[in-house]
Design goal:
Blueprint: E1 5-10, H1 17-30, E2 35-39, H2 46-50, E3 59-62, E4 65-69, H3 72-90, H4 99-106, H5 112-130, E5 136-140, H6 144-181, E6 187-191, E7 194-198, H7 206-225, E8 231-237, H8 241-257, E9 261-269, H9 277-296, E10 301-306, H10 314-324
Parallel strand pairs: 1-5, 1-8, 2-4, 2-5, 8-9, 9-10
Antiparallel strand pairs: 3-4, 6-7
Helix pairs in contact: 1-10, 3-4, 3-5, 5-6, 6-7, 6-8, 8-9
This protein binds adenosine-5'-diphosphate and magnesium ion.
Family: Belongs to the arsA ATPase family.
Domain ArsA/GET3 Anion-transporting ATPase-like: 8-326
Organism: Ignisphaera aggregans
Length: 329
């Protein structure tokens, strides 16, 4: 069995990410690949597209095809709970300070949503990719801005954490030096009237150990995201200037992060023949947008999907779309 592939469908709201992701997943499943599609969009519509009820528990749509709509509130609550527990573990020796107060404030900290989604991605990758229980993992993502912040998180965090690890080592070195001068093997201080022992050894320092653990976790997900044989982003746009220009910015950003963009789907391309003047104008604008696509994304695999005369919902409609997307790997 070959390695699992991971595909992120990214694009502006309304361009057809969910629809294309669903059609792609359906095709992969029909080709015999065990496929899991996960909606990470807080405004889920994956269930609507498959015309079925979905939730946080994996649900089988048909043979080889399983879908999940992550429960956003539960995901954020779980993230905060884990974070709180980790903080209490690390700062256990500082129990005299009221840690709950600090942990409570975390709810409103910037970046919590991105962290929580990334946590869930890591969980899914561990559960399904590392255990090799699926061949194709498809993510339907939130609108572009949030998605890019989530995907950048591992790379940015790695830089931060390595700096913090350096700092922590320097602090421990100082503590060690002071303990030596004082002729003691331990280092004790008084906080709020309580004597507490501070670790001086790297191996015993919960903060350094936690940083190391975080570093390893982020390295793992970063290498999964930047492994071009495994993961890539499929950008979806409409033949209109704004989504195309936004897509170009996303493409440049992802390239900087070392994340591969393998396809560009231009969805909802109007193919009309005998038309009125207004529509002729619309078609001329579309032509202009399409040439912008080829100008901004030269060399990229571009797939055009026609504007269908029906809303592509339900398996039967998705089959037609899947056929159009058959060249997308
Ligand atoms: N090729 C297409 N032709 C016609 N309608 C489409 C096409 N692709 C998507 N749609 C419709 O466009 C709307 C937005 O699609 P959706 O997949 O929900 O977008 P997104 O997930 O990017 O917000 C839906 O009503 C969907 O049925
Ligand atoms: Mg959607």
């Amino acid at each position: 069995m070959r390695q699992t592939i991971i595909r992120f469908f990214v694009g502006k709201g309304g361009v057809g990410k969910t629809t294309c992701a669903a059609a792609y997943a359906l095709r992969k499943a029909r080709e015999g690949y065990r496929t899991l599609i996960v909606s990470l969009d807080p405004a889920h519509n994956l269930g609507d597209v498959f015309d079925t009820e979905l939730g946080d528990e994996p649900r089988t749509i048909e043979s080889n095809l399983v879908a999940i709509e992550v429960d956003y509130d539960a995901m954020i609550r779980k993230h905060l709970k884990t974070l709180g527990e980790r903080i209490k573990d690390i700062y256990g020796y500082l129990r005299v300070l009221n840690l709950d107060k600090y942990i409570d404030v975390l709810k409103h900290a910037p970046g919590i949503e991105e962290q929580a989604v990334l946590d869930r991605i890591v969980e899914i990758v561990k559960d399904y990719v590392f255990r090799k229980s699926v061949d194709v993992l498809v993510f339907d993502t939130p609108p572009t801005g949030l998605t890019l912040r989530i995907m950048a998180l591992p790379a940015i965090s790695l830089i931060w954490i390595s700096k913090l690890m350096e700092l922590r080592l320097a602090i421990l070195d100082r503590r060690k030096a002071i303990a030596r001068v004082l002729g003691e093997r331990r280092w004790e201080v008084v906080v709020a009237g309580h004597r507490i022992e501070l670790p001086i050894d790297v191996a015993e320092d919960p903060i350094f150990q936690e940083l190391k653990k975080l570093y390893e976790e982020y390295s793992m997900i970063h290498s999964v995201l930047t492994n071009k044989d495994m993961s890539s982003v499929i950008i979806v746009v409409n033949p209109e200037t704004l989504p195309i220009v936004e897509a170009k910015r996303a493409y440049d950003f992802l390239s900087k992060l070392g994340i591969s963009v393998s396809y560009l789907i231009v969805n909802k391309v109007l193919k009309l023949h005998a038309v009125s003047n207004e529509l002729r104008q619309k078609l001329t604008e579309q032509e202009r947008a399409l040439s912008l696509v080829h100008q901004l994304f030269s060399g990229m695999n571009v797939v055009e999907v026609p504007y269908l005369p029906f809303e592509p919902r339900g398996i039967e409609a998705l089959e037609k779309l899947a056929q159009i997307l058959k060249s997308v790997e």
